[in-house]
């Protein structure tokens, strides 16, 4: 009968094994992925990408802050806020024309399907802007911007069902995290409501914000569907072309809405209000600047929601980048 070997004391003190998929390994993998992506694209691609990101980081917070200050200064028209959101579409066209010349390319020819897609996207964009205009009329800018982050959730859902985008664990995590942040804001609704806003108006502002975010996610998914089904490619020029056409039709739809509602006749008075708004605020970052400049209440719940939202966006970006790499 053989005896079992005695366990030596040293084996009892063996170091725990380090998981192969540690945080350091994930960071290294992500850095390698970024380096490979940088090498695959020419330098002008990254310049345009950085400029586009900077423009978004300035434009979206600025529009949110200006909308809220407009209402604080006595502005009433939701249609004018919607109209201003798309009135700058000629600027994109002015950028597009030199790009044609520099890249020696011609505009993408329009056909019936492509034209109808731009009209539908323009209508959805006009409706989306109007919903956000109602949201900012009843909600603080910091709260409205946090609720609007739910558009990422809708982008993921519509992208999965309409465009058949792949969904990985990181994207699913971002959906749950941002939904949790949205729930926290809803539970803390009593802390940041303006005295002049009734309970029903605050609830409607919340509803309009979520609906606007849903439309925003739908617009992103349908835009990607246009790239895949109708254009067959995705480039900087094609993206600019789509932005110009969609913004143009959104501008036309919103202009008709202004005329029908009678707000067009009050443009002179509203222009005076906007002049005061522009002098009061420049281009701060939405949620943080809303607290500093507009003295929005910033409760612990809202801070927690903001942190969770950043976590959700980071998870979504990481999941999307890993999905693109695997495809």
TrEMBL record:
One of its GO terms (molecular function) is purine nucleoside transmembrane transporter activity. It comes from Glycine max. The keyword Transport applies. Keywords: Membrane, Transmembrane, Transmembrane helix, Transport. It is a multi-pass membrane protein. The chain crosses the membrane at residues 43-60, 80-102, 114-137, 143-163, 170-187, 207-232, 244-264, 301-319. The keyword Membrane applies. It is found in: Membrane. This is Probable purine permease. Pfam families: PUNUT (PF16913). Signal peptide: none annotated. The lineage of its organism: Eukaryota, Viridiplantae, Streptophyta, Embryophyta, Tracheophyta.
């Amino acid at each position: 009968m053989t005896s079992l070997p005695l366990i030596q004391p040293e084996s009892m003190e063996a170091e725990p094994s380090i998981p192969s998929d540690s945080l350091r390994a994930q960071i290294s993998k992500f850095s390698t992925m970024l380096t490979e992506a940088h090498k695959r694209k020419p330098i002008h691609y990254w310049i345009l990408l950085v400029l586009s990101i900077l423009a978004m980081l300035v434009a979206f917070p600025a529009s949110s802050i200006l909308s809220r200050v407009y209402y604080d200064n006595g502005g009433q028209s939701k249609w004018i806020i919607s109209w201003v959101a798309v009135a700058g579409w000629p600027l994109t066209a002015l950028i597009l024309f030199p790009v044609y010349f520099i890249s020696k390319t011609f505009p993408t020819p329009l056909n019936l399907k492509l034209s109808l897609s731009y009209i539908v996207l323009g209508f959805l964009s006009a409706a989306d802007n109007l919903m956000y205009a109602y949201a900012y009329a009843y909600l603080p800018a910091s709260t409205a911007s946090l609720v609007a982050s739910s558009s990422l959730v809708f982008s993921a859902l519509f992208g999965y069902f309409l465009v058949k985008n792949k969904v990985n664990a990181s994207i699913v995590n971002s959906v749950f995290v941002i939904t949790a942040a949205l729930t926290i804001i809803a539970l803390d609704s009593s802390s940041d409501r303006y005295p002049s806003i009734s309970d029903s108006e605050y609830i409607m502002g919340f509803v309009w914000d979520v609906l606007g975010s849903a439309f925003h996610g739908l617009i992103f998914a349908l835009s990607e569907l246009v790239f895949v089904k109708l254009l067959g490619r995705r480039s900087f020029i094609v993206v600019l072309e789509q932005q110009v056409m969609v913004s143009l039709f959104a501008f036309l739809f919103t202009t008709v809405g202004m005329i029908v509602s009678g707000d067009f006749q009050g443009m002179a008075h509203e222009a005076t209000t906007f002049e005061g708004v522009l002098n009061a605020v420049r281009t701060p970052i939405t949620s943080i600047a809303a607290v500093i400049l507009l003295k929005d209440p910033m409760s612990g719940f809202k801070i927690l929601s903001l942190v969770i939202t950043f976590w959700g966006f980071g998870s979504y970006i990481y999941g999307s980048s890993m999905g693109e790499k695997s495809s």
